[in-house]
Amino acid sequence: MLQRVMRSLSFSNVVAVVALFFALGGTVYAAAGKINGTQIKPNSIPGNRIKPKSLTASQLKANAISAAQIKAGSISAGKIQKGSLTGDQIKAGSLTGTQVQSGSLTGAQIKAGSITGTQVNGSTLTGVSAAAIGTVQYVTSTVNFNETSPTGTATTANCPSGMKVIGGGASVSNNETSFVNESAPTSGRNGWVADGFGPSSASITVTAICTSVTTSTG
Length: 218
Known about the structure:
The protein is α+β, with helices and mostly antiparallel strands. Among the domains are: 2-31; 131-212, no CATH class. It has helices spanning 2-8, 11-32, 130-133; strands spanning 137-144, 153-158, 163-172, 179-185, 191-197, 203-212. The protein has a three-stranded antiparallel β-sheet, with no helix packed on it. A three-stranded antiparallel β-sheet has the order 2-5-4, with no helix packed on it. Strand 4 and strand 5 (191-197) form a beta hairpin. The longest helix has 22 residues, at 11-32. The chain starts with a helix and ends in a 6-residue tail after the last strand. The relative contact order is 0.11.
């Protein structure tokens, strides 16, 4: 039997068998070997060939992923590095008050008209506190017109000691015969002053709205 096989072998048959052996052996070696990152050519693997969740953040090159490549809702606040986002990178309406850290915003960073009074913590205000506004006091002063005065008749409603004026106004007893000329807070913000013109039978009343404040500006 062996002699019959030997007689049927030729040089070309032997060469073909040897080539097949090495070809199969090389394939098995390549399949069994390991490929690391240094053996992969840059940009040679498209995203659809990467198994989902097979990469961690530490394996991604900085700035390798743009915002358009990030799936909506896939990143939580805990995964965002402190200081890595600016205001213009945050979508309008995407944050609620409970998601903003206390003390992280200044007044200049808040859009005008975006906060109502109920959203402001009274204890965070300086100058005028919520408690002080609770002690508002109205002061009035009424005088009859001096119809012979070329400069009109003026009167002042002065705030009690320790209080500052936060508003005020003036009115006349007869709108048909008299009128208010000027109405404004006093220079020291201690009261409200107004003047007007009318007959002696009419009067002008000035009202000052006062409250206790530690400081006043403006």
